[in-house]
GAF domain-containing protein
Amino acid sequence: MDKSMIQSLSFAEAYDRARTNPGVTLFTISIVTADRHFVTRAYTSHEEVYPLGGLKPVGAVNPNAPTAYHPNRAAIVAVFPEQELILSLGGSAGINVPVVENGELIAAVNFFHDENVYSPAAVVEAEAITQALIPTIHMFRKSQH
């Protein structure tokens, strides 16, 4: 999908779109805190078991890293500390799209589904949805200051 074809999306609208294409069993949006040391979950498709908030260290995130595609269970286990919960929610493959501005990571959007569901076209769609989230991410960050 052409990234310019998607208008600005709210978090909930992005989730609705992601359920259709690329498809998700779990969808999350994490925002980097103002001090740039942590990320906090700003949106989740499964709030009752994968709640909003909380802080996780940003770690050694390379802001120049491209979208990460995790094609199978082994990749999810290797990358996500909360792997058991992600796997229990059907996330045995994932796409992680970083949102970077001025060389700094400001957010990450995660799309999870069953193994072997995602294709290169799914990655393009995930990036397009993430691009359309940028205005909403900015509004969320401003509300946190």
The two ends are 34 Å apart (CA to CA). The domain at 3-106+123-143 is CATH 3.30.450.40 (Beta-Lactamase). The CA atoms of residues 65 and 105 lie 10 Å apart. Strands lie at 26-32, 38-44, 53-57, 68-70, 93-101, 104-113.
